[in-house]
UniProtKB/TrEMBL annotation:
CDD domains: GGDEF. It comes from the Bacteria. Residues 194-327 form the GGDEF domain. It comes from Pseudacidovorax intermedius. This is Diguanylate cyclase with GAF sensor. InterPro entries: GAF, GAF-like_dom_sf, GGDEF_dom, Nucleotide_cyclase, Rev_trsase/Diguanyl_cyclase. PROSITE patterns: GGDEF.
Length: 327
């Protein structure tokens, strides 16, 4: 058996998957409808909507298979997400990647597999719509096109889920997305005994930008700040716009030194962004820091409240034109 290699951007891919908020949720008719259709159209015993997580593939819809998930290292779909087109395995017993795979030599005794990647709007391959059979077979070009069309139906449903957890203007997570993804991040940190830090960032003077230059310029300022966050923080960190001019970043496996270093990088990026702009249009912000450790037992909402209070202490204590620092 040959396990699929982990792609270089896997952390960002998994973060995009978690941001959907669909992992470990109950079955939904909108996804089951597609797998039932696939099972009937291709006359196969098994059809799945498979989402490839860090260490597992989890089935949002599962027709013809009892288990809700399997380890990632034995999954066919972990290979399928490495390519853009439908991946087809006509006979798994003749394929060096799968001939001794537990899913082949034991139940469900997979012989045939075909999976169409589920790609989000940012180009991340989150999983597949796949069909499996107990006997060898091959797809025609028409079959492959049909499987891609069905995968597009699943993709649109996933995009709808993404829209519910994403801030339209900045493409960062919104509050709901932060609560879903942040909760997952803290669970991982708890399991691996890692610290976390949450930064609360509030733009200073943002109302004046809107009032003097109009809402279009205000929107552009928010987008510039969001882009600065993406440049500074790691793919594994969770950035979100809570609303208005309030942003947060949840940093996993991070202590105070890591948070302060990130703020230093952010300050440099913002200074570069402000270069050449009139002072009235410059980005300025106050920052608050909240600390989390595995023994605390606090959740993402507790962290938000702590960081919000720290940010307002900072805002009151510093002059309007001062540089940010955390308290």
């Amino acid at each position: 058996m040959i396990a699929a290699p982990i792609p270089p951007d896997d952390a960002a891919r998994v973060r995009a998957l978690h941001a959907l908020g669909v992992l470990d949720t109950p079955p939904e008719e909108r996804f089951d409808r597609v797998t039932r259709l696939a099972r009937r159209m291709f006359q196969v015993p098994i059809a799945l909507v498979s989402l490839v997580d860090t260490e597992r593939q989890w089935f949002k819809s599962c027709q013809g298979l009892e288990t809700p998930q399997t380890p990632r290292d034995i999954s066919f779909c972990s290979h399928a997400i490495l390519q853009d087109e439908v991946m087809e395995v006509p006979d798994a017993t003749c394929d060096e990647r799968f001939h001794d795979n537990p899913l082949v030599i034991e139940a469900p005794h997979v012989r045939f597999y075909a999976g169409a990647p589920l790609v989000d709007r940012q180009g991340q391959r989150l999983g597949t719509l796949c069909i499996l059979d107990h006997k060898p077979r091959r797809l025609s070009e028409e079959d492959r096109a049909l499987l891609r069309d069905l995968a597009d139906m699943v993709r649109e449903e996933l995009i709808a889920a993404h829209a519910a957890t994403t801030d339209h203007l900045t493409q960062l997570s919104n509050r709901r997305g932060l609560e879903l993804l942040g909760g997952h991040v803290l669970k991982v940190c708890e399991r691996l005994a890692m610290p976390a830090r949450l930064l609360f960032l509030d733009l200073d003077g943002f109302k004046q930008i809107n009032d003097r230059f109009g809402h279009a310029e205000g929107d552009a300022a928010l987008q510039r700040f969001a882009e600065a966050l993406r440049r500074v923080f790691r793919a594994a960190d969770v950035g979100a716009r809570l609303g208005g001019d309030e942003f947060v970043v949840l940093m996993s496996n991070a202590d105070d030194d890591a948070a302060e270093a990130a703020l230093g990088r952010l300050r440099a990026v913002i200074d570069d962004c402000n270069a050449g702009r009139p002072p009235a249009m410059a980005l300025r912000y106050s920052a608050g820091l909240a600390r989390w450790s595995p023994r605390d037992g606090t959740d993402i909402n507790d962290l938000l409240q702590d960081a919000d209070r720290a940010m307002y202490r900072h805002k009151r204590q510093r002059p309007a034109s001062g540089s940010e620092r955390t308290h």
